[in-house]
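Q: I have two molecules that I believe assemble together. Could you output structure tokens for the complex as a whole instead of separate predictions?
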Amino acid sequence: MNDRPARRRSSGEWLIAALPYLWLIAFFFVPFLIVLKISLSQAAFAQPPYTPVLDLTAGLAGLRDFLHGLSLSTYALLASDDLYLLSYLKSLQIALVSTAILALLGLPLAYGMARAPRRIQPVLLMLVILPFWTSFLIRVYSWINILQRDGLLNDALLALGIISEPTTWLASDTAVYIGIVYSYLPFMVLPLYATLQKLDDTLLEAAADLGCPRWKAFFLVTLPLALPGLAAGALLCFIPIVGEFVIPDLLGGSRTAMIGQTLWTEFFANRDWPVASAIAVVLLLVIVAPIAFFESLQAREIERR
Amino acid sequence: MGRRFSLFNLTAVALGLAFLYLPILILVIYSFNASRLVTVWGGWSLRWYHELLNDGPMLEATRNSLAIAFCSATIATVLGTLAAFALTRLGRFRGRLPFVAMIYAPLVMPEVITGLSLLLFFVAINLDRGFLTVMIAHATLTLCFVTVVVQSRLVSFDRTLEEAAMDLGCPPVRTFLIVTLPLIAPAVVAGFLLAFSLSLDDLVIASFTTGPGATTLPIRIYSEVRLGVKPEINAICTIFITIVAIVVIVASILTRRADGQAA
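A: Yes, here they are, computed for all two components at once.
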């Protein structure tokens, strides 16, 4: 970039950035500011169902009234009611456990793919990506076919004599874990495969020559080198799982809702816009934390080089 | 290199792929089930596909979804490609950091937040919810995916070809159309297809931003699925899966052929 002779930018080049920039400010940034604003308002029986409403026609007085009307009371409500705290904890628990399961399942699959004959690797890659393109909803739905009371899983287990009467699989945490692991597996496998594929074969050969058994070489050589891929995959899974709505709604029970479901209910069923907005703001903070952690890890990694 | 599958690796890959494909396979098979009871096998039949043809609301939802996906993917492709150019070609410009942040944020933002914020925005600006609002929402969501795909192509792009054209007196716009665009076309097409399929698939954001007359296919399927498994749903899902599989395979063959030419 720097060795290129400095060229004067024409006005046309600014337009290239301006168009997507303005679009994102209008439809991504401003909407988020509105969420922040409404989270500081109070619910009301009105249209729109919150106060205060910024009245621009009243000029500065309107703005002052508006600012006076804002408060943190909605956040106080979130903190005082166990329901919300439990919901956040439930989301974190499900996200943590399923990310761990995903790592355990994804590692051997990605490793197997990376060690497969080179010729068929693109085909394997394609086979892992293909389900990612089919509808999320369809993939979750396909598990209802299997997990329902007179579904195929119970039929199979009954036929094998493992269980003597049908078990309830749906509407449980188990079903949610199955649905999440199934839906997010490609997200975990792809970054892992990308790092494992670049792994230098000679390192493993050296380990073998020095008498290191293969399982030990896996833990001493392969796993440490796969850590960046593992971290990326874990992040790609963990973050969306925390905010997941569809999977727990279709496969989960009604006992404890994940935070995405709580937000949905507050908004659509209770029509409490301020609470829904406050839930969104706090959820965002919960998600930003692991990203910041990952960023700082990467920064340290780059510094070390 | 004559690498062979070891037994462990073969098992891992086979089990992994079986896990990924078995549920879908079962769904496809049961869509051809003659019995109304989803769990009882009553022989092969196309009955549910016939019933789909008479399911007015489902057909309308499919039309809505395809129209929304096409429009939003077009907008997202144009804006996303421009953004990719801005990121790779303009170097450091003022406001670059917030720009990058806004492009990558939707990638990790939970859908419930994006959906909620867009809905509150549309209410605030008094825009009636319907086709247009879903389209804007989907374009915003998928723009970043197009940017990521096109950007990866632009980074590995040989700029001397453009410079040669310019040195020979070709004006910038023409250079873009006859040199740059054909070279990045596979990435742009891949970006479009990704945006299209993401829009077709989205339930959460569409549920927030939709209005009367703009029910999309996932919203329709979702409301049916909540009432339980139905053979018609298996049938429409099978059609959906088939279309997506064909599109993805064609797209990947096209990209690989283009990559082969470039190399």
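A: One point stands out. The longest helix of chain B spans residues 56-89.
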